[in-house]
Amino acid sequence: MIPVESESTSKEGTKIVYVSKENLFAYMKERKDEGYDILLMVTGIDYKDHLEVVYHLLSTANGNRLIVKTKTDGEVDSMVPLWAGANWHERETWDLVGIKFKGHPNLKRILLAEGWVGHPLRKDYPLDKKQYVNLKENGEDYVSYDPREGY
Amino acid sequence: MSDSILLTTLDEAMRWGKGKSLWPFTFGLACCAIEMMSAMGSDYDWARFGADVFRDSPRHADLMIVSGTVTKKMAPRIRRLYDQMAFPKYVISMGACASAGGPYVRGYSVVDGVDQVVPVDVYVFGCPPRPEALISALKQLQDGIVSGKVKH
Amino acid sequence: MEDKVIEVNFGPQHPSTHGVLRIKVKLDGEIIMDAYPVIGYLHRNAEKLSEMGAYPKALIYIDRLDYVASLNNELGYVLSAEKLMDAQVPERAQWIRMMLVELNRIASHLVWLGTHGLDMGMLTPYFYCWRERERILRIFDEITGSRLLYNYFAIGGVYSDITPKAIDMIKEFLADFGSKLEEIQAIFAKNYIYVKRTRDVGKLSLEDALSYGVTGPLLRASGKKWDLRKNQPYLYYDQVNFDIPVRQEGDVYARFQVRIEEMRQSIKIAQQVLSKIPEGEYYNKKFSKPMLVRLKGTGDSYVPTESPKGEYGVYLIGDGSTIPYRVRIRSPSFANLSALPIMLKGYKIADLTATVSSLDPVFGEVDR
Lengths: 151, 152, 368
Prior knowledge:
The complex is a heterotrimer.
Chain A: E1 6-9, E2 15-18, H1 24-34, E3 38-47, E4 50-58, E5 65-72, E6 75-77, H2 86-96, E7 100-102, E8 132-135, E9 141-144
Chain B: H1 10-19, E1 24-25, H2 32-40, E2 63-67, H3 75-84, E3 90-94, H4 96-100, E4 122-124, H5 131-147
Parallel strand pairs in B: 1-2, 2-3, 3-4
Helix pairs in contact in B: 1-5, 2-5
Chain C: E1 6-10, E2 22-28, E3 31-38, H1 46-50, H2 59-63, H3 70-85, H4 91-119, H5 124-144, E4 153-154, E5 157-158, H6 164-189, H7 192-198, H8 206-212, H9 217-221, H10 228-231, H11 252-274, E6 298-302, E7 305-307, E8 310-319, E9 326-330, H12 332-337, H13 340-344, H14 352-359, H15 363-367
Antiparallel strand pairs in C: 1-2, 2-3, 4-5, 6-8, 7-8, 8-9
C-alpha cells in the first residue's frame, strides 16, 4: 500500500487524497488494479508559488469516485500507459498551464496555434500583449507579435 | 399585346437575375449555425426567396454567411476560402460574435469581428438572431443588389 | 508497381463535419491506415473568462458550450455552485429543472438525427426532425423568453415560473410525439441502403471505450449499462420509472437505436414529472439579488450529471472570495472524440462520414 500525504473531503462527499510526486505512478497503478477503470479528466492549477495536478477517477463496478492531487514545480509522470484517454488531457494541460509530462508520446499544443508563446491559464499571463496568427504556404501556422502580419 | 412585352435595359435585367438567385455557402462555425439551419427548415422557409441550393464548394457559391465566432486560428482559412469564390460575391456576417467580437472580446484568441478578414455587406445582430432577422437581412441584400447600390 | 501511402486533408470546412474539425487521413488505396484529428479552431477561452467575474456572470460562457442543448450545461454548473455555497433550493424548482432538461434532451437528439440523415445522403428526415424541434423551441420561448441560449437556471432556483399556457403546450406536444417518432424511425430502419452502410462500421470494443474515458450513448451501445440518472441519481430521478437501453455490437447502427430509445424514455419521464410538480416557491429569496448579495464559497465541488453526450460536470475551486479560483469543465465530446483513431483504422474512406457523425461532437464543448 503506497502511503498518502493527507486526506480531506470535497463539498459533495468525494474523498480527496494528496500524494507525493515520486509515489504518483505506483499509487495510480494500484488504484487501476483495484477497479477504477475510467480516468475522467486531468486538471492543472496555478497557485502563485507552486503548480498542482488533479486527477478524477471513477469505478463503474461499484460507483466509487476518487480525487487525487499532487504538488509539483513543472514536471509529472505521464499516465498514458495506464489509461489511453490521458493523452489528449495531458496535451491540453501542457498547452494551457505549462506542466510537462515525462514519457508522453506526442506532447504538442492542441488548442492554440503552433508557435504560440506563453501559457494562458497562468495567473501572470499578460492579456494586453496580443499575438497574431497567419498561414504559411505549406499549411502550418505562423504566430507573431506584429499586427501587420496576421489576424 | 402590351401585357406580354416588357422593355428594360440589359443592366437592370442582369441585376434582377443576380439578386434573386443567390446560392449560399454553408459556413457554420458555432451556435448561430443552428439558427441558420432553422431558417432553412420547414417553418421559416428560406427557399422561397431563391436561395434554396446550399452549395458545399466555394467555387460554386456566391453568398457567404459567416455564422459564429471567428478565432485567430481559423481566420486565415476564412480568407483563403473567400479568395476561392468567383465574382460576384457577397458576405453576410451573422450574430454578435461575427460582427464585433461578441461576449468573448476580452479574451486572447478571438478576432474582433469578421470585417477585419473579409469585406462585409450586411450585419445581423443578436445572440443568436432569430430566423426572421436573417431572412430580413437577405431581403435587404436582395433590394440592394437589384437597385444597384451594392456592388460586388 | 509500388504501394504509396498518400495523405488527404479533411479540412476545417467540410459539409459533413459537425462544426470545425480537421482530420489528416493516411490512405492506401481506399483503406484508412491512420487518422489524426486536429482541433482548436473554436477555442473561445471560456475558462479564463469565467475566472474574471463573479459566480453568476460565468453562466453566459457556460451556456454556449454545448449550444444545441444548453440547459444541461447550466444544470451542471448550478448544482456544483450550490453545493459549494451550501444553498437550499425549493422543491418546485428542482422538479421544473428535471422536466425542462428532459425536453432539451429530446431536442438535442432531434438535431443529431436530422444532420445524421444529411450526412448519409437523405434529405427528408432533416425537415421532419426540425418541424418537431420547432414545437419544443416554442415551448421554451414561452417559458424563458429565448429560443436557443436561455440563461434561465440561477444559483438558488429558476428565474421565473412556468405559466398554465406552457403546461398545456407541453401536454399537447408529449401526447403525439411518440407516433411522429415511429414515423421518423421507419425512414431509417426500413431503408436497406442505410442498414447496409451502418452495420459493422466504426466498431468500438468495451475495453477501448473504458480506457479512453468514453461515456454516454457510445458506452451504452458497446455493452455497459451505465447511466448516471440510475446509478448515481441527482435531482429526483429515483422517484420516476424509466429504463436504460443497452446494445452489444458497438457499431453505428447500435448507437442509432440507443438514441431513438432514449427519446422514448425521455417522453415517459417528462409525463411523470408533469403530474408530480408541487406548488411552492421557485427561487430561494436569500440569493435573489445576486449582484448585491455577494456569493462566496470555499473548497472543491464537482457534481456530475448526464447530458445527451455523456458525463458532464463543472469542477469549481473557491477560495473564499466572490470570484472562483478555478473553473474546469469536463466535456464529454472531448473524451469521445479522442477515441476516433481506433474507430477508423482498417475501414474504407466512405465509412468516415458515418463514423464521425455517429459520435455527435459539438465543437463549442470540445474546444471550449
